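hey so u asked for the seq, here:
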Amino acid sequence: MTLTSGQVAKRAGVGVETLRFYEREGLLPEPTRRASGYRQYPEGTVERVEFIRRAQLLGFQLKDIKELLALRDDPGADRQDVRAKAVAKLADIDQRIRDLEAMREALTQLVATCHGSGPAGGCPIITAIARTRDAASDSV
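ran it, structure tokens below
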């Protein structure tokens, strides 16, 4: 049984443009076409799209997802390869959390310096951001 783009999109909970995007990115094989030009997807496409969406929700980038799909589709692939990708994604997430925590701390300190009255141009937050930008451009 084959499905149209609309049927796949509806069952997978995505838009038709998402399917076309996944095709362009090589995450979905190009489907066969009817004589009318309409795409015909195999039944397994819905599950593949759902896999892609769930992997995105876990933070995997399209390149990573393409590699995971290749591992999934390769009968000779080892679980260790999949695990290594997940471990690398965890390390990436941990680093992003550390970066976000550092940003939060810096912003918390800046907020504490601004008492909310007076001209905005003299606000310590504006001054600190301008100083940070100037320091960053000096290092470039």
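The CA atoms of residues 34 and 40 lie 7 Å apart. Strands lie at 2-3, 32-33, 39-42.
lmk if thats what u needed
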